[in-house]
Design goal:
The chain has helices at about 15-25, 55-60, 95-105, 130-135, 180-190, 215-220, 235, 250-255; strands at about 5-10, 30-35, 40-50, 65-70, 75, 85-90, 95, 110-115, 120-125, 125, 145-150, 160, 165-170, 195-205, 205, 240-245, 260, 270-275, 280-285, 290-300. It is an alpha+beta fold. The protein folds into three domains: about 5-60 and about 205-230, Pseudouridine synthase (2-Layer Sandwich), CATH 3.30.2350.10; about 65-205, Pseudouridine synthase, CATH 3.30.2350.10; about 240-300, PUA domain (Archaeosine Trna-guanine Transglycosylase, Chain: A, domain 4, Roll). The strands form five sheets. Strands 1, 2, 3, 4, 8, 11, 13, 14 and 15 form a nine-stranded mixed sheet that branches. A hairpin with a 2-residue loop joins β14 (about 195-205) and β15 (about 205). The longest helix is centred in the N-terminal third of the chain and has 12 residues, at about 15-25.
Length: about 300
């Protein structure tokens, strides 16, 4: 069994829970997820099975799209609705659409974020949430992420009240914390804030419309139709150019040899060599030999 299962992760489950259940349902051990989604978050979680686990990192590195509800008026320990209140401002607020759009615009592009204490980022070999659960606060590395688009989904011209909420859509790079982004939006507006809810609507090339739930996977498996929902490795590699193996380079590529660099690698960071349109090898620029390329991934049984 090889391929990518576009799973819709439901609220209340960890990404590891999904992998554990799928190993039982699919009766295979070679199952891996492509990026942690918090238990309170639902959404697109591509699952790699069999040989597809070799490209799990590509899917993890791909951009993501989310829809979130931001709540202005309160910050929490976890930066989302699950945490305890840290700071609260229940004064009556009147935030114009123009003010909100200006705040969103200022956070579009490359920005800096400090990961929340309740996160899986490692510091000195331990996850930050391990420190947080013991009440410890440690210095966290600030990192740069990219917000490709930040869109206000509500049509209101004014957002008024003691606790104001609004919906946004975010297209972003890997490593972006939407919880932290919600806090940053609040800071731009001059108020404490947190993320009230979150849904991941896309992960790389995978969208909600292709996804199935765990219950549906179990039903499909019982009907013997699992291949109807498994997407091939090629689907995940579709952002990269495909080059069909020919007689001139067949032997070298099948043996995974270092080759003179292909012209397409000047425009793309990866190229895919295929046999009858099935991916066989992913090549990238050689890190030390200028003018050459090397295989990064091989799929001999694809």
């Amino acid at each position: 069994m090889n391929g990518i299962l576009p799973l819709w992760k439901e609220r209340g489950m960890t990404s590891h829970d999904c992998v554990f259940k799928l190993r039982k349902i699919l009766k295979t051990k070679k199952v891996g997820h492509t990026g942690t989604l918090d238990p309170a978050v639902e959404g697109v979680l591509p699952i790699c099975i069999g040989q597809a686990t070799r490209i799990a990192e590509y899917l993890t590195d791909a951009g993501k799209t989310y829809e979130a509800v931001v709540s202005i008026g309160r910050t929490t320990t976890t930066e989302d609705a699950e945490g305890e209140t840290v700071e609260e401002d229940l004064t009556y607020k009147s935030i114009s659409r123009a003010m909100l759009l200006e705040a969103l615009e200022s956070l579009t592009g490359e920005i800096e974020q400090t990961p929340p204490m309740y996160s899986a980022v490692k510091v000195n070999g331990k996850r930050l949430y391990e420190y947080a659960r013991k009440g410890q606060i440690v210095e966290r590395p600030t990192r740069k992420v990219t917000i490709y688009a930040l869109e206000l989904l509500d049509d209101d011209q004014n957002f008024d009240g003691e606790e104001v909420t609004f919906r946004i859509r975010i297209a972003c790079s890997k490593g972006t914390y939407i919880r932290t982004l919600a806090v940053q939006i609040g800071e731009k507006l001059g108020y404490p804030a947190h993320m009230a809810s979150l849904v991941r609507t896309a992960s790389g090339t995978f969208t909600e419309k292709e996804c199935v739930t765990l219950k549906q996977v179990e039903e499909i498996m019982n009907e013997g139709k699992i291949n109807d929902v498994l997407l091939p490795v090629e689907y995940a590699l579709s952002p990269y150019p495909f080059i069909e193996v020919d007689e001139a380079n067949e032997k070298q590529i099948l043996n995974g040899q270092v080759l003179p660099i292909h012209a397409l690698l000047k425009e793309h960071d990866k190229i895919v060599y295929s046999i009858q349109h099935r991916a066989y090898a992913v090549y990238t620029q050689h890190p030390t030999k200028e003018g050459f390329m090397k295989p990064e991934k091989m799929f001999p049984n694809n």
